[in-house]
UniProtKB/TrEMBL annotation:
Transmembrane segment boundaries: none
UniProt name for this protein: Alpha/beta hydrolase
PROSITE patterns assigned: PROKAR_LIPOPROTEIN (PS51257)
Classification lineage: Bacteria, Pseudomonadati, Pseudomonadota, Gammaproteobacteria, Lysobacterales
Keyword Calcium: no
PANTHER family with a match to the protein in the record: SLL1969 PROTEIN
Organism, as annotated: Luteimonas aestuarii
Amino acid sequence: MSRAHALQPGRMWLAFLLAALLAACRTTPEPDVPQAVSAARQAYDALHDAPEDAAAMAAYQGALARLGIWLERQPADRQSAALAASGLRLDDHDLGEAGLRYRRAQGVSTRRLERRHTRDGIGLPMVAWRSNDGSGPWDRFLPPEGIYLPATALLEREAGGWVLRMVSPLAHAQATLAGRDWPLAADTTAAFALLLAQPGASELGRTGFFGLFNPQNARRAERVYLMKGYDPSKIPLLTVHGLQSTPLTFANLANDLFADPEFRQRYQLWQYHYPTGMAVLHNATQLRTALRRTLDELDPEGKHFATRNIVTMGHSMGGVITHTLVSDSGSALWDSVVDVPPQALTQCPPEAVEALHANLVFERDPRVVRAIFIAAPHRGSEMADNWIGTLGQRLFHRDQAALGPYSFLLECARDRIDPRFASLLHDGKFSSIRTLSSQSRPVMALSDIPPAVPFHSIIGQRRPGPMETGSDGVVPYSSSHMDGAESELIVPYGHSAFRHPDAVKEILRILHLQAARSPVPAGVAP
């Protein structure tokens, strides 16, 4: 057995507890850095000589806590220089980003999240962050709010002196310190919490409302965001939100997923954001276009493991539009709207026919290998037609630029188009609200097309009763259910079914299953 395990478990965790209490002293005055560094060096040497000494462990952890307090009180752009002036070199290469700044995880409020995920061990949990200033190689794919990463600080001796090393707890469960292996402390929630506390996150939340009712003036266009730098060896989990929503809806779920060691090892999180007000199939076309553009930029030759093993997870309308990524439409959707083939519409402007064709005729993207549908209204929602839908429609401002090509169809081929489809166009009601109706012929046609990949359904049932007549309060079971699912889970919850603990467990089970079926090729580091 390694000498790292010579310390009795009770004494070891007592030492960690003592260190945590030291770190929690928020009113501690700013420490004298040379004294804190000197104390940490002495503690490191003592730990090296006697790893079973609980007092040495507590002293080491306490010195790290004091360093952390001092470091976060320095001007953010001077932290590295301040460390150097104190005789410490900062090494944060493990985090994969340059120009990072640091805060103690202990001092970050997580009130916006339901659970805080931590791991006991050696080191001081930190949050590493920087603004998205375009300086990084992946910045154009990352959220404009900035980059926020969990980190763990360790003080180490090296040949040239002393180093404060920032280690990624997402990549490492252990740390080698003083020649021994130790469990690595972690707080994987604080980085999410600090991101959510930024003004940009609040602005993003408001785009859900404006994106539904006034999509032409939405502050953010549709695009795929990576939550950290691209990794060609990790499976992308692409999440797609629903009506009047944003990627923030998945904040708690993302926090829970990153608490899972296998998810951290095998997956990377991608999030699609889009203004949700336009018609469902228009939104689906935008998703397919945005994903194709992102993949072409990340992997122009299409050879990476990551870009050939995508898992999608769509909530509500997000489930309906991700269905188009894993399905071949044939002519089914076109035939549900137009009673002649595209080439017969010779009297119409080509751009109008092309726009309609792009919405209604598509092929599955072979790079998507599995799909998860959560509370998806495959056969529409009754709210699209009731007073709630009517009220929402009255607030809707149509995007005339996006509707332009379709409007030509009313002039050149109205007698060839489904009357309801034509009426929505004519009345300015060509919106996601109205096209999510069970009376929408193309949406119903899509629901009859089975996905060409393994898929799973997670469905909420708000009240006890027969499953077949159940509902999550927005979408009935009869609409969320899809024959042929590899699994279907009913949870006692409302429309945000993914927030139920059983749903989180099911999502992780599915992701573990896909990871087991998608081994990383030899020579590609996971």
